[in-house]
Amino acid sequence: xxxxxxxxxxxxxxxxMLIVGPFLQRMILPVGAIFMALLxxxxxxxxxxxxxxxxxxxxxxxxxxDIYSIGETLENTTPLILTGLAVAFAFRAKLFNIGAxxxxxxxxxxxxxxxxxxxLPMVIHLPLTLLAGVIVGGLWGGFAGFLKAVRGVHEVISxxxxxxxxxxxxxxxxxxxxxEESALNIPQTARIxxxxxxxxxxxxxxxxxxxxxxxxxxxxxxxxxxxxxxxYEVRAVGLNYFAAEFGGIKPNYNMFLAMMISGGxxxxxxxxxxSGLFLRYQHGFEPGYGFTAIAVSLVGxxxxxxxxxxxxxxxxxxxxxxxxxxxxxxxxxIVYVIQALVIFFVAAPQIVQALPDWIAKRREAAQAEAEGAxxxxxxx
Amino acid sequence: xxxxxPVIEMRDMTKVFPGVIxxxxxxxxxxxxxxxxxxxxxxxGKSVLMSVLYGLYPPTExxxxxxxxxxxxxxxxxxxxxxxxMVHQHxxxxxxxxxxxxxxxxxxxxxxxxxxxxxKAAEDIKALSEKYNLEVxxxxxxxxxxxxxxxxxxILKTMYRGAQVLILDEPTAVLTPQxxxxxxxxxxNLTESGVPVIFISHKLKELMEICDRVTVIRRGKMxxxxxxxxxxxQVLASMMVGRDxxxxxxxxxxxxxxxxxxxxxxxxxxxxxxxxxNGVSFQVRAGEIVGIAGVAGNGQSELIEVIxxxxxxxxxxxxxxxxxxxxxxxxxxxxxxxxxxPEDRHHRGLILDFSIADNGVLGSHDQPPxxxxxxxxxxxxxxxxxxxxxxxxxxxxxxxxxxxxxxxxNQQKVIIAREIGREPNLLIAAQPTxxxxxxxIEFIHKRIIEQRDAGKAVLVxxxxxxxxxxxxxxxxxxFHGEIVGEIPGEEATEDELGLYMAGxxxxxxxxxxxxxx
Lengths: 380, 517
Description:
The complex is a heterodimer. Chain A is mainly α. Chain A has a domain at about 75-310. Chain A has 14 helices and no strands. In chain A, helix 4 (about 100-115) runs parallel beside helix 6 (about 155-175). The longest helix of chain A has about 45 residues, at about 5-45. By secondary structure, chain B is α/β, with parallel strands linked by helices. Chain B contains 17 helices and 22 strands. Chain B has helices at about 45-55, 75-80, 100-105, 120-130, 145-160, 175-190, 205-210, 235-240, 300-305, 330-335, 345-350, 355-360, 380-390, 410-420, 440-455, 465-470, 495-500; strands spanning about 10-15, 20-30, 35-40, 60-65, 70, 85, 165-170, 195-200, 215-220, 220-225, 260-270, 275-285, 290-295, 315-320, 325, 340, 370, 375, 425-430, 455-460, 475-480, 480-490. In chain B, the strands form five sheets. Chain B has a six-stranded mixed β-sheet with strand order 6-7-8-3-9-10, sandwiched between helices. In chain B, a hairpin with a 2-residue loop joins strand 14 and strand 15. The N and C termini of chain B lie far apart (about 60 Å). The interface between A and B is medium-sized, with 19 and 28 residues.
């Protein structure tokens, strides 16, 4: 390699890095983690005697092969975006909201109640249904925030407990007061009114307009976090409680607020899944989005754009799993392994970061060698 | 032992961290019978050099000799085996253990039955403490003894492990003037009984007083070693900083006007309900600097927190310009006209992972022009940051840099810019130059005096007596949560202040009873 060639490439590299550098740097960890998870996952697939390439191709086809799968993947993405945002927002205030599941379920129940019990024109009924989810989810999360702010109760404990309370309360409501009156005696609520339903936007899949709402909300949360004093205060409290307090910010109020917003986001997720997909509450409805959300938030680096992409990733994996099982005869449990590996590699950043370091070291060594050669050349 | 053979010698010591040359070919030798000063600003590489000597980091290049023999110090255990003892700035003692238990930790003597032989340990310690004149009580618990004694325990610990040379890292920061004198006596005793001392400090007066020679490093580079007979504080300062520095605080007499801050009989308790402020009363007038001296932990921190609304007072009153602000919220007090440089910039002062611009508006982030309703106005925030970066000479590539990546002095400048920028009626400056290098100290002191000359009331709280004495028009001394002394600034001497600080003297009336107790 001659000097001029080298300098041109390095100038170009510098120019490119100036523009995309900060973004790329943030992407290294999650993308690297996904890459390594797929790599390690491939060994598992090899170990059961299948071809990983075929398996992954089948997975992609299962998730994006036709309009129906694309729609289903996106429908799966919707609640993950909202619960992921919920966990991420709380995390910005250094609060670990394990209770997104409970807030999600309570939001769904509230939406069901409004959807089944009120008779209103759609322009009022639909927004009100979703709003009910936001409010009840927000109160459910806000209660944990209140306990934290006033009594110092650790939010991990209180939100876990509130998850159980939500589950059993819903169980009671669905088998009791809110149970549909029918001859079949199924433990489920009545179907919500047509005026409370989100429209389908991609038939034949079940994708509802909820995905649009989720994306708009992600944009709103991004704005709230980075462009407003609300986000400034929440982040300040999360990064340094004492300096925030010194600067006249009320840390306890902001922790409460963060938990309430967090719960509201999860509650909206529950409302959308009822209003756009299930249309009624069935006994035993516990899809676990609130728990996957923790992983989504982690992989998405607690930042709304990252959360959207991570939600898409997890939805793709779970949607593609079926395709992989049918087309490549690889059990869909492999997908759980891959999901776990993604989390593992994100949570153990040293492993992934070691990779670029190793590459950089190799490059440096090569450069040093080249320079040494050049020096010798000059002396000669 | 030949006088010419150094006890410890470091030759061409180089330590490179990724991107930083912390030590660049430094030569250092300490001989029997001497105290060697190691002088440099914060971040000059003093601590790294000593950490290499103590085996905490491997050197990149360079050799270490112990009594003329080259050694390879790979870990602290090896350093101890070679007789190198180190007392860190922050004590490494176990508070609930006794003095004896702490000293023997790691090399416990055993009885024939294999159990701990605490009696023998106490005996050994007694012998050692007599030999070096280090007075300690082997059976006292660390948590019950004074800072001065804790330091003697640390020194004894190294002697117990057979140290032949002692490194003291900034040992005087936590001591009263009298305790510092005691420490210097101990250092003399040690050198006379054959244990030379390496004394790390950036306090020029102390170096002049105790050292035989001083080695100066600046930005990782060796500047030189100078015999104390050729040195003066001025010479040392310019060696350390690389230019001439004004050491004395240069100011005219103040012109106190109306009372700005009036603190009346404040009582307060800590988290455990124990009294920390026992009836504090004083006033600060516009156009005057009042300094509060005292050994750390005598209620100064709580006093600031009460005035700034971060700690509740149990009784008493704080008035700002005649208006009672006792136990108002921090936000109300900031907007009422009190600006505060907090004592610990990492704890209260800054959000390290925020940018300079974001830190610059902390406290006024929700006020126009920085925000309208909840929308932040980034143009105004950036312009303001650019302005104070220029005015306060904050060394940074731009205002988007994270404060975490600035040096201590520049971090402090961000805080001072922010607080002075509020245009307060009262400026509280707590430890305004802690961990800041000499050049920045000069700058910060100038800014504080400017505030006074602009007619603001200024309250300075500092553990550095020189700072309090240099800045203040009037000095108050705090001891056990009370103001025990009030002395006009120009009349104060270190010895006299020391007596008040140790609680041995008092010239203020005993406080009236409050609700506490």
